[in-house]
Structures are given as structure tokens and as C-alpha cells.
Amino acid sequence: MILSCSALSVSYGSHKALQGFDFRLERGEIRALIGPNGSGKSTALQATAGLIQPSAGGVTLDGRTLSTMSRRELARRLSFMPQQPQAPDEMTVEQLVRQGRFAHVGLLRSYGPADFDAIDWALESTGLTALAQRSLRQLSGGERQRAWISAALAQQADIIMLDEPTSFLDIGHQVEVLELLTRLARERAVTVVMALHDLNQAMTVCDRISLLEKGRLVFDGTAEALAASGLIERVFNVRGRFVSLGPGSAPHFDVEIGARPPPSVSG
């Protein structure tokens, strides 16, 4: 086990955004957090990454409490990409990706060959080598998303946490990003945790899926077990069915359009 949360809770005033969240990650695992809007996915990611202070519970990394680790020490082990990351529009892609090495070089030490190799690899892995000198202002939404993923890769952490990494990407680039993250897990034993809206992406790519509802973890297991649980229809308030796409394929959820009563419209 590489990372563990126990009874993690987060409150904002009287609102309980996360309640009693138990979470275990293994090295090289790909995990998805899914759930309706407001279910606590982003809060769970941020609390697990040590970015927000829990009101109860705690997180350990290789048996060590996160709160005892410095930000730089933690950044060498864990990389986090938020849902809407911000950077100056004048910054170039390469400058952004170089920031991923700060945990290794600090503010005073100059970049060495290993740092430049990591930056070049991160740019190449995300298909951004040719755009390295472009400013973020010149990028499309999908290109900018890939630039942030590239910065996360340059950090070369053991765990990568991403909040909606396929947002703003067309289907081709969504597949590229998911394939890249899968290669990292399988070939480099990097642990990948993603908050995803696309259920079928989660079912196809991830080893395990964690389903949240109103700040509580209501399911944690394999895609096959989730398909058999009946929870998707209840938690998301939809009708549909899981179908098999063939031997070795993950279950695929087909939504039944028109099964819910239309919303009332007042005149």
C-alpha cells in the first residue's frame, strides 16, 4: 500500500463536503473517483493530496502522516493537477512544464541533465514538443490541458492525481491522455488517481472505481462489481443497462434517453 486515508472528513462551515472517507491505493494502480456534481470528488482528491485540512481523519504516505511532510518533500512523491489550473497567459509551454521540476531543483539549484530529460520526455509524451515555445494564450483549450498534464508528468512523482484530466479535450486527445496515464501505471508503476465524469472511461481504464454520493463513499471496487451493484442508476438518477462489448472488455453503460419524466416548465 502506498497511500491510505482513514475516516477523512472535510467541512465548510455547516456543510459536510466529505464524510468518513476511507481510501487505499496500491503502487501502479489506476483509480477513478466518480459521482454526480457536488458528490465530493474534488474535495476527496484535494484532501487526499494534502491540499486542504481535513476536519477529521488523516492521510498517510508509505506509513508517514502527510501533515509531517514539507511541501517540497510531498511534491517529490505526489503530483496534483486541479480541474481549472491557472498560470499567466504569457508563460510558454516549456516554462510551465519546467515548473514541474521545482520540487527537485528548488529555487537556487540550476537545472541538470536529468531535469532537462524529464522536461523533454513530458513534452514528447503529451505531443507538445513542437509547441514548447508558444505562450499559453496561443493554445486551444485542449492544448492547454495537455500542457498542464505535461507539467505534472515532469514532476516524476510516484502518485499523480488529476481532477477531470479529459475536460476540454476532443475524443482523440482524451484517448491519448488515458493511454498515456495507463502506460505510466503499467510501465513505470506510477499510481494514477482521476476524478472523471465519463463513467465508461472509468470502467474501461481503471483497476478500481470509487463512487461518491453526497460526500460519502458508497462503492469501492472493480468495474464488474459496480455494474452488478445497481448503484449507477440510483446515484445518478438515470435509467440504463450495462452491456458487454466482448470478451475481456469492461462493462459499458448505455443510458436510456427519455426514461425520466421531463422537468416541469412554468409559464
UniProtKB/TrEMBL annotation:
It comes from Labrys neptuniae. It is a peripheral membrane protein. This is ABC transporter ATP-binding protein. Belongs to the ABC transporter superfamily. InterPro entries: AAA+_ATPase, ABC_transporter-like_ATP-bd, ABC_transporter-like_CS, P-loop_NTPase, Siderophore_ABC-ATPase. PANTHER family: IRON(3+)-HYDROXAMATE IMPORT ATP-BINDING PROTEIN FHUC. Residues 3-239 form the ABC transporter domain. SMART domains: AAA. Keywords: ATP-binding, Cell membrane, Ion transport, Iron, Iron transport, Membrane, Nucleotide-binding, Transport. Its main location: membrane. The keyword Cell membrane applies. It is found in: Cell membrane. GO terms for molecular function: ATP binding. PROSITE patterns: ABC_TRANSPORTER_1, ABC_TRANSPORTER_2.
